[in-house]
Design brief:
single chain, 78 residues, mainly alpha, elongated
Amino acid sequence: MSTMTLSLPESLHAKVREVSKQEGVTTDQFIAAAVAEKLAAFLSVEYLEERARRGSLEKFRAVLAKVPDVEPEEYDRL
């Protein structure tokens, strides 16, 4: 585990203390979880962008062409 000094506006710090207390976790745990969630979001975007670069519009259209052109079932209509 490493230590980091973090400067927060007092209003944000107060909210972090309040919510972490309500959730029954320490402020350190709350902040670590928040950072982990933000990293996961960023990494997901990078992953999806990489997958999109490997995609092929021609292959997508070929697969889509195999889908029958029929009306959806009544229960599946918008």
